[in-house]
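Limitations
The structure tokens in this dataset are predictions for the assembled complex, not deposited experimental models. Users should treat interface geometry with appropriate caution, especially where small molecules or nucleic acid strands are included. An illustrative entry is reproduced here so readers can see what is and is not provided.
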Amino acid sequence: MSSIEERQREEKEQRRRTILDATESVLETKDRDEMTMADIAEEARLSRSLLYVYFEDMDDIVLGVTHRAFQSMRRRFQSGVTQHDTGLRQIRAVGDAYVAFAQEEPTYFDLVSEFESRAADPEEATARMRQCLAEADRALEVMADAIQNGIDDDSIRADLDPMQTAVTLWGCTHGLIQLAANKGTGLEQRYELSSAALVDDGLSFLGVSLAGPPLNDPTETLPADQNGNAQA
Amino acid sequence: MSSIEERQREEKEQRRRTILDATESVLETKDRDEMTMADIAEEARLSRSLLYVYFEDMDDIVLGVTHRAFQSMRRRFQSGVTQHDTGLRQIRAVGDAYVAFAQEEPTYFDLVSEFESRAADPEEATARMRQCLAEADRALEVMADAIQNGIDDDSIRADLDPMQTAVTLWGCTHGLIQLAANKGTGLEQRYELSSAALVDDGLSFLGVSLAGPPLNDPTETLPADQNGNAQA
DNA sequence: CACACCGTTGACATCGTGTCAACGCCCAAC
DNA sequence: GTTGGGCGTTGACACGATGTCAACGGTGTG
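Predicted assembly:
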């Protein structure tokens, strides 16, 4: 009986994968909000009702694909880190990996974007949402580790908190790529700015602050914020 | 007859404003994708059909409110710039203004976020979409001017292209605030990072690169990208 | 062989959207 | 003052998408 249950588990998991695969296919040609349950069902060659057996609703399905997206992203980050020596180069490799991720898997990148632009309330998140958050955390850990490496090998200034800096870089890089991807064509023809150069130079720009020189008194060159604190 | 036509124009414009006002009210409690035409009509005390006389569809209405959002944002940017002297302080003021914008008018900020996350195809954009793009461009001009001021008064390094840097800062700042706003509570309890400190420190972090020192050879400290070019 | 279980499906009720014909009101002309 | 046309306004309709439910069929079990 265990083998039967096991087979049933496997078949169930296989069908789950089939649905997610179909959803990915549909998302390659259609936008997320113009995709319909019927589209997914047709692509998966299943009845529409069956989708509701394996997933709560379309949000749930999309979150399943989003989880795959975060996995792919984290793997790219790790791969980038392991190919470089100094911490600064490692964190730059993460940025380049993120750019490649957005270019080569635009569907995944869009899902990550959408996930990031939605509020994730503390602990009332759904199970599949938590999966995504966990994977995103692992990606952040990879970045924080690289930053710590940089602090240790002196390629990154030591007054930075690794995790806070990782979050900062993640936010900046994401915003930069998203802007270039969506408004890039418009910017290119209005201001003669190449999207590729924009993000590459942008990553270098961020790198300056990582290695850069707020050695002792940043308030001298930069106005402190309202609270009076200037840097972590 | 001109007075009659004029009155009709005014009434028409007034009704348009009424609809946009109602939409804003609804958006303060409901998310954009759970808002319905019936909600707007009820809030505006009009019949649902009438909405289609003044706007194409809900996207069109939302774009109208989005235009207001961009206007408010640009005004805040300009106001921030005029209150400071050096270019570096001006651009920092724009960042602070953006943070205040996101905090004090979260509905507007969400609309800007959504607009930025959608692809704006070159010249097949709708009229109201172009209005938003134009307003965003004006905001970018404000930033670029501030950066140019900084280059002129030596508070910002001179090897930066003002417009490209404006776009870069805009993307980074937006990504940073969006991340803090949506994932902030989660980050606070998992890593003891305050959202406010995250964005404030993040802005300072960006300021470092603006004033910072890639004076002659950035390729020495930073790995060049695939194309071999390092900085604008 | 009969029964029970589970995966699967078509059909239904509900809701949101966009359109259309019809109604009523205001102004102009006769 | 009465008639007619134009315009703002509305209820009703058709369509499409969603989520649920009862019913069907095949497989393993007693």
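Some entries come with short summary sentences. For this one: Chain A has nine helices and no strands.
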